[in-house]
Design brief:
This protein is mostly helical and 139 residues long. It folds into two domains: 90 residues, no CATH class; 43 residues. The protein is 81% helix and 0% strand. The protein is elongated.
Length: 139
């Protein structure tokens, strides 16, 4: 029995998606030996379809990742606003001295970490400007 172009295309699509020969045979009604033969015959087409299938998955992952980053950023922004409001109305006189001291030290370390990063970025920017600005004119 001769198979149609649509059946071959379906086989290529299913192989590109990672379906096993047994699963494809079950789904299409094509014998496993025929599928193995097609695999050899259409290997380049299958590999190309696998490439596009992978690209599609990577694109979908990128979209999902971007969406996660946006949601996390929004949540962080909201949490920071809430923290700022609470900090403005905080009543620290009820906090034990050792807890207050640890809290202060933690905040100082966090602030130092944040400002060191900016200092490093500024330092690198200054070096780059220096290198770009130090040109020698030639006659």
């Amino acid at each position: 029995m001769t198979k149609t172009t649509e059946e071959v295309e379906q086989f290529i699509e299913l192989r590109a998606k990672g379906f096993s020969f047994d699963k494809i045979a079950e789904q299409t009604g094509t014998s496993k030996p025929t599928l193995l033969k097609w695999n050899e015959t259409y290997l380049e087409h299958i590999e190309e379809a696998q490439f596009y299938e992978l690209q599609n998955l990577l694109f979908q992952y990128g979209v999902m990742r971007r969406n996660r980053v946006e949601v996390i950023s929004e949540m962080l922004g909201s949490a920071l606003l809430e923290l700022k409001q609470r900090a403005g109305t905080a009543d620290f006189h009820k906090m034990d001295t050792d807890k207050l001291l640890n809290f202060i030290l933690t905040l100082e370390q966090r602030l130092e970490k944040e400002t060191d990063l900016r200092r490093l970025e500024h330092s690198e920017s200054t070096k780059l400007k220096y290198l770009l600005g130090s040109t020698i004119e030639v006659d």
